[in-house]
Amino acid sequence: MSTAHWNPHASRRETLTIGELAARTGKSLHTIRWYEKQGLIPGVVRDGGGRRTYVLDHVGWLQFIDQLRMTGMTVAEMRDYAALVAQGKKTLPDRVEILRDHRDTVRKRLKETRKALKLVEQKLGFYSTWLETGERPAEIPTLMRRPKKPNGSKKA
Amino acid sequence: MSTAHWNPHASRRETLTIGELAARTGKSLHTIRWYEKQGLIPGVVRDGGGRRTYVLDHVGWLQFIDQLRMTGMTVAEMRDYAALVAQGKKTLPDRVEILRDHRDTVRKRLKETRKALKLVEQKLGFYSTWLETGERPAEIPTLMRRPKKPNGSKKA
DNA sequence: GCTTGACCTTGAGTTTACTCAAGCACCGAT
DNA sequence: ATCGGTGCTTGAGTAAACTCAAGGTCAAGC
């Protein structure tokens, strides 16, 4: 937008261009357009020249769906959620349900990840001790000790 | 394997077939073969018929790389790690470094995810309150209030 | 000796979430 | 009038991690 240079915060305009939205959210123009095509961004209006115009709420919205993404929600799920948002407050119960489910899913995944991390840390501890003492600290077999023969038939 | 039916735990054989390994690790045959092709599974020996034979350590190994996967390590990184493992104990320092770096990465990601989750929970709380009280609890703007006109030129 | 079940290989297909390229339109400034 | 900066659309390309299909092999039981 031509005014962007000397009016970088668009202080006296209520709408944002896609470039400004990108700058404020850290998303690329590509991504924002793609998100829109995926149905993730309701309420995008075009100006006379066919360009997208956004409002400040869109910044918050993009930030919010970014939280959803960071917690592992898929674009498909976010699309469903966005569709509900676009339908107004009558969909509040559905939205609450989705968010609750998602929260539970994330908590579960966090738990699993922490567990897996603990095991990795164990292995790390094992290796570290081994490295420090020069002695293999027993416990936690790692890999690759073969018995005598593979059991199978000979070729001829 | 022909003996699999009546000897499901292969108790008196030191090697496992790919099917047995799959059963014990929850991975599919496809995935195990693919992992091997990716260089994730050292020490796989073929029997006279060309079939892969595994040892019990492979079960532990697959479980371990599953921990790495669950904590977000990529297959490419695991390949590097596996290559070090295959080179024996002289690579211990490198392995320790990799695991340490990975641990730090995971911790960081966990932190970010928890933060994002908190924000999602905030939104959820906001919605829940709104739903219970019937009153919008102020705070946390969500989306879509438009000013009067989109600013742009008219078509003609 | 034939069927069956477990394996084999190669190569293609799938899903998710972008990311980029090409070619054109618009608008404000000079 | 034109030019640079933004923006537009369509469609293709990418990367990761599988997943599957087709067609063939092998060893054992009947």
Element string of chain A (H = helix, E = strand):
EHHEEHHH
CATH class of the largest domain in chain A: Mainly Alpha
Residue-averaged pLDDT of chain A = 86
Major beta sheet of chain A, specifics?
A: 3 strands, antiparallel
The greatest interface here is:
A-B, 64 and 64 residues
Number of domains of chain A: 2
Secondary structure elements and their pairing?
2 copies of one chain form a homodimer.
Chain A: E1 15-16, H1 18-25, H2 29-37, E2 45-46, E3 52-55, H3 56-70, H4 75-86, H5 92-133
Antiparallel strand pairs in A: 1-3, 2-3
The first copy, chain A, binds a DNA duplex (30 and 30 nucleotides) through helix 2.
Quick tags:
5 helices; disordered C terminus; DNA-binding; Multidrug-efflux Transporter Regulator, Chain: A, Domain 2; homodimer; elongated; 156 residues
Outline the structure in words.
The structure is a homodimer of 156-residue chains. With 156 residues, the first copy, chain A, is mainly alpha-helical. Chain A is 55% helix and 5% strand. The first copy, chain A, has helices at residues 18-25, 29-37, 56-70, 75-86, 92-133; strands at 15-16, 45-46, 52-55. Residues 1-11, 141-146 and 148-156 of chain A have low confidence and may be disordered. At the A-B interface, β2, α3 and α5 of A face β2, α3 and α5 of B. Chain A binds a DNA duplex (30 and 30 nucleotides) through α2.
